[in-house]
């Protein structure tokens, strides 16, 4: 029992240093619990039943001895029949010796009962220690699983945010790239520009390009936001119902 208590103290000290515990320490605690095999638990249970039976037998024996002593005390003290006077005088010494012997036996039984109660408490403490350690390991494992799930959810949220940023940037530049490729495809004919002439901005063509690109970009972003809102809405409704 001392080794079990020292193991518990060491486990608590390591836990203060590292809230999540070390893997080697967890393995050691699991190895310590191997002493509680199924056969060992059966032996402990049989020991508990034997102790309880012994306590019951001692209690009944103590009651019987006390009742017999009280019965003879009643005969010697309460009954005043003339026929019993001679019997009382002849049996007085024997009765006193019997009372002393009976009291010694009762005290001995009480001592055995105290020892068995202490042993019963020890057995119950061992079983409770095993149950507490197993529950602690399961609770810590569940807590670690929860933390891992939270970390995975946080990483997924960050990756989702990054994907949203990439998608948003793509939606901004993709319509302009599409319109630039469309204007350069040769489908539309533009007036020839003299290579020797100084560079100048064709405001009409630029306005057309900018207007079409901006319109398509805005429409695309609005459609994307609507679709994103529709996809998120069922999740938010399920979260509200769950809470």
From TrEMBL:
Residues 1-13 have a biased composition (Polar residues). Gene3D superfamilies: Magnesium transport protein CorA, transmembrane region. It comes from the Eukaryota. The chain crosses the membrane at residues 165-185, 205-231. Residues 1-21 are annotated as: Disordered. Keywords: Membrane, Transmembrane, Transmembrane helix. This is Uncharacterized protein. It comes from Fusarium xylarioides.
């Amino acid at each position: 029992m001392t080794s079990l208590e020292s193991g518990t103290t060491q486990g608590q000290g390591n836990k203060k240093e590292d809230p999540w515990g070390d893997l080697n320490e967890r393995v050691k605690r699991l190895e310590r619990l191997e002493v509680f095999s199924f056969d060992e638990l059966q032996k402990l249970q049989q020991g508990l039943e034997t102790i309880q039976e012994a306590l019951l037998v001692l209690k009944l024996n103590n009651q019987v001895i006390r009742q017999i002593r009280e019965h003879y005390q009643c005969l010697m003290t309460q009954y005043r029949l003339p026929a019993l006077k001679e019997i009382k005088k002849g049996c007085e010494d024997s009765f006193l010796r019997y009372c002393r012997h009976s009291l010694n036996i009762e005290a001995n039984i009480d001592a055995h009962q105290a020892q068995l109660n202490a042993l019963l408490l020890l057995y119950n403490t061992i079983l409770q220690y095993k149950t507490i350690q197993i529950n602690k390991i399961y609770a810590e494992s569940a807590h670690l699983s929860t933390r891992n799930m939270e970390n995975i959810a946080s990483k997924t949220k960050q990756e989702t945010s990054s994907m949203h940023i990439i998608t948003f940037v793509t939606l901004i530049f993709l319509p302009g790239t599409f319109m630039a490729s469309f204007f350069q495809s040769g489908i539309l004919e533009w007036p020839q520009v003299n290579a020797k002439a100084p560079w100048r901005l064709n405001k009409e063509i630029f306005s057309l390009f900018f207007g079409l690109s901006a319109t398509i970009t805005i429409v695309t972003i609005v459609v994307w936001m609507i679709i994103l809102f529709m996809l998120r809405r069922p999740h938010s409704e399920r979260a509200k119902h769950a809470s």
